[in-house]
Design a protein that fits this description.
- The protein is an alpha/beta fold.
- Helices cover 38% and strands 21% of the residues.
- It has 9 helices and 7 strands.
- The protein has a 7-stranded mixed beta sheet with strand order 3-2-1-4-5-7-6, sandwiched between helices.
- Helix 2 runs parallel beside helix 9.
- The chain is globular and about 45 Å long.
- This is Class I SAM-dependent methyltransferase.
Length: 233
């Protein structure tokens, strides 16, 4: 991701429904921890998730392949380092929480990246992963974003368990918007919509994401999958 696009994302993400939804999902997961600890955000971009972690009392480290992303994260006060998801410049068993949000679908060798997530977690540590799901939704839009795959629920579970982690939960997002996004993305090859949305449209999309938090919607097919797993021990 280039510097111009990173700065465009940084400008809109505080109010944009999609980024707000991802921050809300992270905040909800953090409430499961009685005591905050150390966390790493892999593929952190401008470090927004690290700032959410810090608000909840965590000591967070950002890792991204892009020097521009690292620079931007540091400018926002985030501890950030340049690094590849397949070869993390981090000690083994050093973190209580590892995030890989919208990262693995961009990595050719996702098995190695998953193994690195497991390696840096302490025994008993938690991994939180999100990915684009369902190859039936594959389009020129995915190519434009640099994705190399979309995951089925089974493929994501197999990837995580193959790294030696124990899957605790897998759930869907983008369930209510799946038909709309499928139609729209097969008509365009643009990258993610980074232009500011009309406030009413933005709010409708945000509310649709809120409704998806209620069971059984999270078990229905969507556009994204989230998974929570832990390192045994």
């Amino acid at each position: 991701m280039d510097t111009i696009e990173l700065r465009r994302i940084a400008r809109i993400e505080d109010g944009n429904w999609w980024y707000r939804t991802r921050r809300d999902a992270l905040s909800a997961e953090l409430l499961r921890f009685s005591v905050p600890g150390t966390a790493v955000d892999i593929g952190a971009a401008a470090g927004t998730s690290c700032r959410v972690l810090a608000e909840h009392g965590w000591h967070a480290t950002a890792i991204d392949m892009s020097p521009a992303a690292v620079e931007l994260a540091r400018a926002h006060g985030v501890e950030a380092y340049e690094g590849d998801a397949r070869y993390l410049p981090l000690p083994s068993a050093g973190y209580d929480l590892a995030l890989a949000l919208d990262v693995l679908e961009h990595v050719e060798d996702d098995e190695r990246a998953a193994a690195e997530i497991a390696r840096v977690l302490r025994p008993g540590g938690t991994a939180l992963v999100s990915v684009a799901c369902d190859m039936a939704l594959w389009s020129a839009h995915d190519v434009a974003l640099g994705r190399v795959r979309r995951y089925s629920r089974r493929a994501l579970i197999d990837l995580i368990e193959g790294a030696g982690l124990v899957v605790e939960r897998v759930w869907s997002r983008g369930v209510l918007l799946r038909p709309v996004l499928r139609l729209r993305r097969h008509r365009t090859a643009r990258r993610e919509d980074l232009a500011p949305l009309h406030p009413l449209v933005n709010e409708v999309l945000r509310l649709s994401a809120v409704l998806e938090r209620c069971p059984p919607v999270s078990g229905w097919p969507g556009t994204r999958l989230f998974a929570r797993a832990r390192r045994p021990g």
